[in-house]
Write a structure and sequence with these properties.
alpha+beta, Outer membrane efflux proteins (OEP), 11 helices, efflux transmembrane transporter activity, coiled coil, single chain, 474 residues, four-stranded antiparallel beta sheet
């Protein structure tokens, strides 16, 4: 082969190596609304550091909650699993990139042969093998592209698992503190019920009321004691659930009781639809589409010929020491071009499979976006309705407390029966507990909204940028 022919072959090889078969990726279109139906549930506040840092739980201004979430981030076994999956995805990405490089191997052999009428001979050899398959049609590039997208999806999966863990800790903590507050309300009510029971006994001893009033007062007190035990059981279960989220044994975890709920935060004035793309599950779905798109290109390269270049050099001698003195030298170098002519439809089936999987991922991505919009709408609607409902419940609590004061004074004066007093006391207790339940629901809805917009997870994180950005030569 003369120099001109070799140059033409090399030029053609380089041009072919610049080709990349398969469709280039474009993010599927989705319809994001300009505003939400329950936008009024979205409140505004000045910018806070936690908005940019993604530490959304700091808006609740509760040091214990902050401590629990940080502990869960450090010790959760669920998060450890997600991080292990990320390392596996990174290894797969590096494995695919390894196909860009040639492969060099070495071997040393020793053989001894002979027969009845043949002298015994020995042969020692050492050999180096070099092989390389240029990426003519972009098969390797498409595979690396697919694995890079899968790696970015795995990084987003870590963020999703972390967000789910944080939300679970926050919700469990809110439920636990609500139970503490319920206990405090019941204990306050128990004091009032004790006073009423003592007054009823005194009035019975004075012949003012009947024995049935005393029994009714004691029954009311006993019912309240039973509810206190129920609250203790529920609190123990919530505490054990928190221990599991934090990655510690329940026996090694304890949270002192407190009658203070986390502060109800006011949320940032950022349009939620803009933040939908930051949700980890949306990023995972979108990167799944990118990976499936790249695999279509991988499947299409199977229709094209493959070129491989190989070379080897070897030394031989009938003694091992001769390999280092004056051995026999042999070598070989040359290209190999291969093309599959018939495969029983396997390549077509592989391509159709890749295209079908791409369509599935596109549908999954669009459905994930729709689910995200639904989650935001649900959270906004809940916040809006609860804000209005809480104002009405505050008025009801005030009326119930005033009614109890009036009925209590009338009962002391002997103007009404204990049944009316018991009814008024229970009405006040129910109104207070209902108001507490609304506050708990408001806190839970705020947590859900933080999750619905992705918890502030930043898509511009340097690690994600490094993963998503193509490496030179890819």
């Amino acid at each position: 082969m003369n120099t001109k022919t070799l140059s033409l072959c090399l030029t053609g090889l380089l041009l072919a190596a610049g080709c990349t078969v398969g469709p280039d990726y474009h993010t599927p279109e989705t319809a994001l609304p300009a505003q939400f139906q329950y936008q009024d549930g979205w409140q505004t506040m000045p910018a806070q550091p936690w908005m940019a840092q993604g530490t959304w739980w700091e808006a609740f201004n509760d040091p214990t909650l902050t401590y629990l979430i940080r502990e869960a981030d450090q010790a959760s076994q669920t998060l450890a699993q997600a991080e292990a999956r990320f390392r596996a995805a990174e290894a797969q990405w590096r494995l695919s990139r390894g196909d860009y490089s040639p492969e060099l191997g070495a071997s040393v052999n020793a053989t001894r042969s002979g027969g009845n009428n043949t002298a015994t001979t020995e042969l020692f050899s050492g050999r180096l093998d070099l092989s390389w398959a240029p990426d003519l049609w972009g098969r390797v590039r498409r595979q690396v592209e697919a694995d890079r997208a899968a790696l970015a999806a795995s990084a987003a999966d870590i963020a999703g698992v972390r967000l789910t863990l944080q939300i679970a800790v926050a919700q469990g903590y809110i439920r636990l503190r609500a139970l503490d507050r319920q206990r405090d309300i019941l204990e306050q009510s128990m004091v009032a019920f004790d006073r009423s029971a003592e007054l009823t006994r005194n009035q019975y001893n004075a012949g003012i009321v009947s024995r049935s009033d005393v029994i009714q007062a004691e029954t009311q007190r006993q019912s309240l004691r039973t509810q206190l035990y129920d609250l203790d059981q529920q609190r123990a279960l919530e505490e054990n659930a928190l221990a599991a989220l934090l990655g510690v044994a329940p026996s090694a975890f304890g949270l002192p009781a407190s009658d203070e709920l986390p502060a109800l935060p006011v949320l940032p004035a950022t349009l939620p639809s803009v933040l939908i793309a930051r949700r980890p599950d949306v990023v995972v779905a979108e990167r799944g589409v990118a990976a499936a798109n790249a695999r279509i290109g991988v499947a299409q390269t199977a229709w094209l010929p493959t070129l491989s270049l190989s070379a080897f050099g070897a030394v031989q001698d009938d003694t091992f020491s001769g390999l280092f003195d004056a051995p026999q030298r042999v070598w070989s170098v040359g290209p190999s071009l291969a093309l599959t002519l018939f495969d029983g439809g396997r390549r077509r089936a592989t391509r159709d499979l890749a295209e079908a999987q791409y369509d599935e991922q596109v549908a999954n991505y669009r459905q994930t976006v729709l689910d995200s919009l639904r989650d935001v709408e649900n959270a906004l609607a809940t916040i809006q309705v609860l804000n209005e409902k809480a104002a009405q419940q505050d008025a009801l609590v005030a009326l119930a407390e005033e009614n109890e004061r009036v009925i209590n004074n009338r009962y002391r004066a002997g103007m009404v029966s204990f049944l009316e007093l018991a009814t008024a006391q229970n009405l006040t207790l129910d109104a207070r507990r209902t108001r507490l339940g609304m506050t708990s629901e408001q806190l839970q809805a705020t947590v859900e909204l933080a999750g619905a917009i992705g918890g502030g997870w930043d898509l511009d994180d340097p690690v994600i940028e490094r993963i998503a950005r193509p490496v030179a030569g890819e």
